[in-house]
Specification:
about 325 residues; Nucleotidyltransferase, domain 5; alpha+beta; single chain; 10 helices; seven-stranded mixed beta sheet
Length: about 325
């Protein structure tokens, strides 16, 4: 079980190689995404006016987002979700079942879209000149385009005529179909950096719709999720996370400790060393809220329409597959 001490701690050889004390407690470990989920799911939300403060921990969905994304839903009883992994008992939070949804390519998809665009070299140059990174430049460009279009608070609508199905590397959840491919509808001959910024925004939206698709499957099978908690590299991208809140209509908690996977691993060690009586106590005391993002209600109707397009795109792709058989 996670956090239980393994054997007699560090062996002589391991202690020597690591420069640590012989017998230092070693906690039973977790897969990286599971450690991330452990590190964020029980954060203290008091004072943040969140519904999940008065709801069980099972109402929270950790999203570990980086190159790919994992969605870790827990329940006190086994809940089977068609074409989603699990449930697995005590494999993340002891005495809870975990169901794992996922997207095969998220950060990797953003990199691919950005790096293969004709304006990529110009983007890199602007990032160097401003002593920032390419995604900060793109986020600023999206904001600027919103202001120019008189949509400062509704930048999502820059993609009214641009739609993306994000499964460039197949679908893991909730369709479990490795044959699916990426789709883009609404391309033009434009190749400038503004075109790249809008394409980048549409890609973020598509990834967020993928999360909404997974949420629908989880809640439709018996989960009751009302809050998202994000960690991983992509959680540092403010636009990425705000779009997730807007698209799902749920608040997104960003933890105080950015490296939540490492925090989760340290929780296992803290429990194994007997500094705490159990993992639940460690989780509650070591995890804190950093910032809370809330959905932009002005975007709700727009994203509901765009989500219908999103679901229609995969239906169309399957029709094309059948036509070509």
């Amino acid at each position: 079980m996670p956090g239980l001490p393994v054997g007699k701690g560090l062996s002589a050889q391991s202690a020597s190689e690591l420069g640590l004390i012989l017998g230092t407690p070693v906690g039973a470990g977790l897969v990286d995404a599971y450690a991330g989920g452990l590190g964020v799911i029980a954060c203290d939300v008091k004072g943040h006016n969140l519904a999940c403060e008065n709801q069980p921990i099972t109402s929270r969905l950790p999203i570990i987002c980086g190159t790919s994304t994992c969605h870790m839903a827990i329940s006190d009883k086994p809940i089977f979700v068609d074409r989603v992994w699990g449930p697995f008992y005590s494999s993340m939070v002891p005495k809870f079942w975990v169901t794992e949804g996922g997207q095969s390519a998220t950060g990797k998809l953003l990199d691919h879209i950005v790096q293969t665009h004709p304006a990529y070299n110009e983007l890199k140059q602007k990032a160097q000149e401003s002593n920032s990174n390419i995604y900060q430049v793109l986020n600023e460009r999206v904001s600027s385009l919103g202001e120019k279009s008189h949509m400062k608070d509704q930048v999502g609508q820059l993609t009214t005529n641009l739609h993306i199905w994000p499964d460039f590397h197949g679908n893991r959840s909730p369709l479990a179909d490795a044959s699916l491919k990426g789709m883009i509808c609404g391309l033009t001959l434009s190749t400038d950096i503004d075109n790249l910024a809008v394409l980048y925004l549409a890609t973020i939206q598509a990834i967020a719709f993928g999360t909404r698709h997974i949420l629908d499957a989880l809640n439709g099978s018996g989960h009751d999720i009302s809050t998202l908690i994000a960690c991983g590299g992509l959680s540092k991208n403010s636009l990425f996370m705000q779009i997730h809140s807007d698209v799902t209509g749920l608040p997104v908690i960003l933890p105080k400790e950015i490296e939540s996977v490492l925090l989760g691993a340290s929780m296992l060690g803290a429990c194994a060393s007997s500094d705490y009586s159990n993992i639940q106590e460690v989780m509650e005391k070591m995890s804190k809220v950093g910032h809370v993002l809330r959905p932009n209600c002005r975007e709700r109707e727009y994203y509901n329409k765009k989500y219908k397009v999103f679901l229609k795109m995969v239906e169309d792709q399957k029709v094309y597959q059948n036509m070509m058989k």
